[in-house]
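Today's session is about reading a structure prediction critically. Students often jump straight to the picture, but the first step is always the sequence itself: look for stretches that repeat, for charged clusters, for runs of hydrophobic residues. Only then move on to the predicted structure, which in these notes is written as discrete structure tokens rather than atom positions. Here is the chain we will use throughout the hour.
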Amino acid sequence: MFSLVRRYVKTSLFFFLTGLMVGMWILIDQFIGERGTPAILISVHTHLILFGFVIMLIMGIAYWMFPRPAREDIRYSPSLAEINYWLITIGTSVRTAGELGLSFTYSLTSWLVLIGGASLQILAGIIFAWNIWSRIRAVGSQFREVKGERF
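Below is the predicted structure for this chain, in token form.
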């Protein structure tokens, strides 16, 4: 497993554990807290688990498991995979900070932080799709498809 892929996986596990802690916070807040749970905390929990864990894990494993780029492939870039890692990591962290800020008090700063983090997540998704697209191809399976086997 490449070092970049290990970073994707380990960072996704960090976001997973953080998302679980926020989920516990929500649970305690709902049943013990006096103020009730702000809806934005549900969003924090969801984005930590979905983007921070699931999407980031999928990205890392895709970079590892998908077929190597073809020799003539000028589209795939290992540098873009690195940039993608930092965009999704920073974007998820910044979005989380913005949403947590909004859970305590409404402020323009928290909204701007939230929008900035979400924008980085969107950019990371676009870069991932662009960078991995050419690696989605048949490698060996085209012979089974010609014989008519179904999967």
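Discussion point for the tutorial: Residues 3-136 form one domain.
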